[in-house]
Amino acid sequence: DSGVTQTPKHLITATGQRVTLRCSPRSGDLSVYWYQQSLDQGLQFLIQYYNGEERAKGNILERFSAQQFPDLHSELNLSSLELGDSALYFCASSVDLDNEQFFGPGTRLTVL
Amino acid sequence: GQNIDQPTEMTATEGAIVQINCTYQTSGFNGLFWYQQHAGEAPTFLSYNVLDGLEEKGRFSSFLSRSKGYSYLLLKELQMKDSASYLCAVRDWFSGGYNKLIFGAGTRLAVHP
Q: Which of A22, A91, B38, B66 sits most deeply, having the most CB atoms within 10 A of its CB?
């Protein structure tokens, strides 16, 4: 158990819908990262927050957005969902910007 | 741009030693990580190298050569539970003052009795 929690574990929804994935970092960690992992693409970095502010952006679609709240938990919002958005979404956290990242158990999103 | 290459699949025998190679090209290298990931589970941290040389941690060791853009993960005394994907990830420094962790596609290791 890494200490990073993610909810929900599984999410099944339809195309065109919007979902919100939630992540609570390890106690004391200020940095939160979101990754997408689909079968054919490996682990893709989406976005990073540090102490409430966006720090780095990866291959995140405009239909996706995220934020980190004052209590340091983070939410990833996915809208206008497409079949290709079906994937495992991982959240990771680290103490600061440069340390090793600890991954949560992931949310498996299935878009039908 | 960034590029990270690892073999797609490897097989090995229980009790043996296996070496998983990773080559990378980045503009602002700032450290290399190895993660283990069992199917459907979260990646877990194995090792970190930022200077050249070998880092040993029990049955796992990781080596880095920055001049060659090369790393390997060495697993000794293989156990069945070591069957997993092994992800090489490079931390790349970007102008604007931030790091990004870029993951390779991973190497699927199958350990046989």
A: A91
> CB–CB of A44 and B103 under 8 A?
yes
Dist. CA A37–CA A88, nearest whole Å: 5
The model's pLDDT over B25-67, given as tens digits with 9 standing for 90+, comes to 988 888 999 999 998 899 999 999 999 999 998 999 999 999 9
DSSP for A76-98?
EEE-S--GGG-EEEEEEEESSSS
Could A98 and B91 be called an inter-chain contact, meaning their C-beta atoms sit closer than 8 Å? yes
Instruction: For residue B108, give the chain A residue with the closest CA.
Output: A42
CA distance B71 to chain A (A): 17
Per-residue model confidence as pLDDT tens digits over A44-73: 999 999 999 998 888 899 999 999 999 999
User: Judging by DSSP bridges, how do beta strands A42-50 and A10-13 pair with one another?
Assistant: unpaired
Q: How far apart are CA A57 and CA A55, in angstroms?
A: 7
Determine the average pLDDT of the residues in A67-91. 97
User: Which residue is closest to A55 within chain B, CA to CA?
Assistant: B98
Do β-strands B9-13 and B107-112 pair in parallel, antiparallel, or remain unpaired? parallel
pLDDT of B94 reads: 72
Mutate to test the interface with A, among B101, B102, B103 (most CBs of A within 10 A): B101
Nearest residue, CB atoms, B48 vs list A33, A44, A100: A100
